[in-house]
Design goal:
The protein is α+β, with helices and mostly antiparallel strands. Helices cover 17% and strands 36% of the residues. The strands form two sheets. The protein has an eight-stranded antiparallel sheet. Strands 1-3-5-4-2 form a five-stranded mixed sheet, covered by helices on one side. A hairpin with an 8-residue loop joins strand 7 and strand 8.
């Protein structure tokens, strides 16, 4: 009898300290898109955060907790399950709509999230690097100082091309990806809208972060060959320095 009690007590401790696996349920609301590869970057937004681009809901996923325990659980681990499903259905973003923390009856975080797809068309510049270099060579001597090929350093490594383009109101130049390695930002994708400033060699950038959130940033070209922008994240300054090729 004593050994039976000890065994039962041991099993109770296992439940308390390890908990039960969560269950996942998914409700589709529209046709899924092309699946994303493992590791594809998908931004996750909480209830109060504004999503930078218009979206529609592909489906809603719920992570439900098991029973028996008051300890354990990881929000990060459960979010990874949501991201896995988001990649399967071709989502562009995730919006967390409900978060419940572990308690006595539920060992793990319980999450509900909408899986989202962008419904707008992001601008792309239909020019190859070879053709862009030909444009620069053909117009040498009459280019604006900001036109050219720029390589970044800092916490973002990318190559962008900048050329005259006033097809959008309030814009004089556009910056587009020439090389990055991020599947969300393929070659040709617009990264920066640029307009001239009031002073010589000054410009106002509308810079788009990795999740397409926009930042208005004034710059001055240093010796017409470099500029620096600050895109703070988590209350820390994070600088990107661009140098002209």
């Amino acid at each position: 009898m004593k050994s039976f009690i000890n065994a039962a007590f041991f099993l109770l401790l296992v439940f308390i300290f390890t908990g039960c696996a969560t269950t996942v349920s998914y409700k589709s609301q529209s046709v899924a898109g092309k699946s994303r590869p493992a590791g594809y970057p998908i931004p996750v937004y909480t209830g109060q955060q504004k999503i930078p681009r218009p979206t529609e809901i592909i489906g809603t996923i719920s992570i439900n907790a098991g029973k028996f325990t008051m300890l354990g659980g990881s929000a990060g681990k459960e979010t990874e399950k949501i991201l896995k499903k988001a990649r399967e259905v071709g989502a562009d973003a995730v919006k967390l709509v409900a978060i419940e923390k572990p308690d006595f009856a539920n060992p793990n975080y319980r999450l509900t999230a909408d899986l989202l797809r962008y419904v707008d068309i992001w601008e792309s510049i239909p020019i190859s690097e070879e053709d862009f270099r030909a444009y620069l060579a053909a117009n040498a001597g009459k280019l604006d100082p900001i036109e050219g090929i720029w390589h970044s350093s800092g916490f973002v490594f990318q190559t962008i091309g900048i050329m005259k383009n006033d097809s959008m109101a309030g814009r004089d130049f556009v910056g587009f990806i020439l090389g990055f390695g991020n599947p969300v930002w393929p070659t040709g994708t617009k990264r920066i809208d640029i307009r001239r400033g009031l002073e010589p060699d000054s410009y106002i950038l509308t810079y788009y972060l990795d999740d397409f959130e926009r930042r208005e940033i004034p710059i001055i070209l240093g010796n017409k060959r470099s500029f620096k922008i600050n895109v703070p994240q988590d209350e820390e300054d994070r600088f990107i320095i661009y140098r002209k090729e």
